[in-house]
Amino acid sequence: MAVTLIHLIRSDCYMQVARKNIDAAGLSHKVKVIIGPAVDTLATITGDGTFDFAFIDADKENNLNYFNHAKRLVRSNGVIIVDNIFRNGQLVDESNQDSRVEGVRSLLRALKEDADVESTSIATVGEKGYDGYLYALRK
Length: 139
Description:
By secondary structure, this protein is of the alpha/beta class. The protein folds into 2 domains: 1-36, no CATH class; 46-138, Rossmann fold, CATH 3.40.50.150. 30% of the residues lie in helices and 33% in strands. The chain has 4 helices and 6 strands; from the N terminus they run E-H-E-H-E-H-E-H-E-E. The chain has helices at 12-24, 38-41, 63-73, 99-112, and strands at residues 5-9, 31-35, 51-56, 74-83, 117-126, 129-138. Helix 3 links the parallel strand 3 (51-56) and strand 4. The longest helix is centred in the C-terminal third of the chain and has 14 residues, at 99-112. The protein is globular. It starts with a strand and ends with a strand. The model has no long low-confidence stretch (mean pLDDT 93).
């Protein structure tokens, strides 16, 4: 089986939904689902520098940890996306100490000095409000 996608899922409940959608799309033979906290399961994934793309949309408190694993796994010129980084403008409110906001802030602070990637943020506005994502290219 050639795995083309690895999907990390926190719980059995979410896994059942994901598996149903993957099966309905006819992609079961191309998707490996790993159950458990991504902060733990990412460390078990091998293939450093062999992935083309990583999409991070998990607990924001661990964004920097996830991003560092993504950098390890994604090849040179591969792409890393981190979702939900604007959080309706909450990042610029210095009085907001929410752990999710702090998680995004820690990632952005680290990227400021990170020579391994070129990154930018892209804002989106829609029915869920004002948000966006980070787009990073691995050097």
